[in-house]
Amino acid sequence: MRIIDPSAVTRPESVHNTKERSEFRNFEVGVESRVRSTYAAMHRYQTYEFVQAKRDEWLKLDRTQMTILEALDLLNELVDESDPDIDLPNIVHAFQTAEKIRETHPERDWFHLVGLIHDLGKVMALWGEPQWATVGDTFPVGCAFSNKCVFAEQFEANPDSKDSQYSTKYGVYEPRCGLNNVVMSWGHDEYLYSVLVGNGCTIPPEGLSMVRFHSFYPWHSAGAYEYLMNDEDEKMLEYVREFNEFDLYTKCPNLPDIDELKPYYQSLIDKYCPGKLRF
After folding, report:
1. Counting Cβ atoms within 10 Å, is residue 106 exposed (0-12), middle (13-18) or buried (19+)?
2. Number of H helices, E strands in the chain
């Protein structure tokens, strides 16, 4: 697979980055207009009603059937417009994340696979879904938006912020109702989670939570919405935070050798998510 002219980059034996941690997710200094505008549309249009319509549209899983690797290959065509840290095709990030997890936790093969596939839901953007409804941080809809969300001031343009049903602390939810009972903004997390569950994939619950909530930065990184958590969420938060260490801090310009790595990851796919999946 050709991603970028290999003569223009180095391909180290192990993926690493050269940025300091404080330099990641810097949305304030020099952030590109594409990032800010992607979030502006997301925060304006992602209402409770909008998300329910998207769930009805996409969660039938009747769009196509393909294997995990076929879906990954599609991500060679996608650059995430919401990400201030990297502008390489998303397939590069998938293998960078997976390989660092594999290096750190060689015994947890399901974790390696989660690193590889966690962004697969972004294929929606290649099938006509705008990136503001595919990528970026997620947040609950149906209750008050947290000021710990990135660009939280943009929610002023969202009709739900002025709706008496949706603008209170709990909105349509009950205290400690559990995140499984909360409707999240529409994006690749919930879509891929539903693909994995709907196809009977055998990734353990910890891995499924990593997939479902890895973009929920206001929760796992800023402590927002804790009043919606139940006891199970308390347990899963630890795993989601662990995953975030690899999802965020492995982003760098260096390319892994994807063709060389594919046979190993195919063995994991065959174990946990075999054959063609319904998307």
Report:
1. exposed
2. 10, 2
- Residue 139: C-alpha distances to residues 41, 187, 194, 218, 274 (Å): 14, 10, 17, 7, 31
CA 131 to centroid of chain Cα atoms: 12
Q: How many residues does the chain have?
A: 279
Give tens-digit pLDDT for 83-122: 655 567 778 889 999 999 999 999 999 999 999 999 999 9
Could you tell me the end-to-end alpha-carbon distance of the chain, in angstroms, rounded to an integer?
23
- Give the contacts of 138 (CB within 8 A, at least 6 positions apart): 184, 185, 187, 189, 190, 213, 215, 216, 217
Is the Cβ–Cβ distance between 141 and 47 less than 8 Å?
Answer: yes
The H or E element that residue 33 is part of is helix 33-45
Residue-wise DSSP of 195-248: HHHHTT----HHHHHHHHHTT-HHHHTT-TTGGG--HHHHHHHHHHHHHHHHHH
The answer to whether 87 touches 135, Cβ cutoff 8 Å, is no
**Distances, alpha carbon 264 to alpha carbons 91, 219, 258, 260, in Å:** 16, 33, 10, 9
- HSE-CB for 234 with a 13 A CA cutoff: 5
Encode pLDDT of 237-251 as tens digits.
999 999 999 987 565
What residue type is assigned to position 72 of the chain?
A: L
Q: Which position has the token pair 């892994």?
A: 256
pLDDT tens column, 1-43:
444 332 233 223 333 444 455 444 555 645 567 788 999 999 9
